[in-house]
Specification:
By secondary structure, the chain is α/β, with parallel strands linked by helices. The protein has helices at residues 36-48, 89-106, 110-121, 159-167, 173-187, 241-250, and strands spanning 4-13, 22-32, 57-64, 70-72, 78-81, 130-133, 153-155, 191-197, 206-210, 214-218, 230-235, 253-255. It has two domains: 4-66, no CATH class; 74-255, no CATH class. The chain is globular, with a radius of gyration of 18 Å.
């Protein structure tokens, strides 16, 4: 295989993230040298046309990948949990209730789920994931509002498009990125479950993922217009957390699917 490169983009409004700018958009791809320009243009357009506004700061970073790559299968089960409920409080409560029920089925105690959501709600904007001990509810990372950002991941070649055609799913970038991230995160033995919904105000779908249950997509998990996102990793606190964070941030992972 050709030498691989990792491209990462982040965009903000009101200055860089380090200067207190508001996060607008981010993205990441792994590609070979001949596709770098095409992927960079995709990330540039994504950052400039985001629903959260026009950025005045953008950074696109390119780095080669010298480490060995881990190849991971996407989570096996695809299930779209649809809830046909009314708008308003019941509408919001129902979507989150479905997510929390799925987490309990996986084995996360209700008190731990409630504590995790309470921790996330203390921050106006979370840029990464919060790591929560699945048994005690204690936060395991010390990153504050920044959280732990999962990096160096993508699908191999056109495997996502093949997967999407097979399952008759729209081959859009949101699903592509969510499935890739869930596959990498849940491939690690320390991960017990993941809960996520986007900070994009116009995207109200979230998901619960685990090795036990797979990738469970949940519509209407938040109200339209809400810019608060959530990404929680429920973790086995007895594992080496430093090694786990290093895997999430640095280990190159490509998602492969042969059909």
């Amino acid at each position: 295989m050709d030498k691989l490169y990792n491209l990462r983009m982040r965009a903000a409004q009101g200055g860089s993230h380090e200067q207190g700018g508001t996060h607008i958009s981010g993205g990441e791809r792994i590609t070979c040298f001949s596709n770098i320009q095409q992927v960079a243009m995709y990330l540039l357009e994504k950052g400039l046309t985001h629903c959260k506004g026009r950025p005045d700061f953008m950074q696109i970073q390119l780095e080669s990948i010298p480490e060995s790559v881990t190849y991971v299968q996407p989570l096996e089960r695809w299930a779209n949990v649809e809830r046909f409920v009314k708008e308003g409080d019941t509408f919001l409560k129902e979507g989150k209730t479905v997510a929390f029920q799925l987490l309990e089925i996986i084995g996360i105690p209700k008190k731990v789920i409630d504590r995790a959501v309470e921790i996330v709600s203390q921050y106006s904007s979370m840029r990464g994931a919060v790591l929560i001990d699945a048994h005690s509810g204690k936060r395991l990372d010390d990153r504050g509002e920044k959280g732990v950002r999962v990096s160096r991941l993508d699908w191999l070649g056109n495997d996502f498009e093949k997967w999407a055609r097979y399952y008759h799913v729209s081959a859009n970038s949101r699903i592509r990125e969510a499935l890739a991230l869930a596959a990498k995160v849940n491939n690690h033995p320390a991960t017990i479950a993941e809960l996520c919904w986007s900070d994009d105000p116009d995207y109200t779908t979230g998901y619960v993922a685990s090795r036990k249950m797979g990738y469970q997509r949940i519509e209407n998990i938040k109200t339209y217009g809400d810019e608060r996102g959530c990404r929680i990793f429920f973790v086995d606190g007895q594992k080496d957390i430093r090694s786990y964070i290093n895997y999430l941030e640095n280990q190159p992972v490509l998602i492969t699917w042969e059909g």
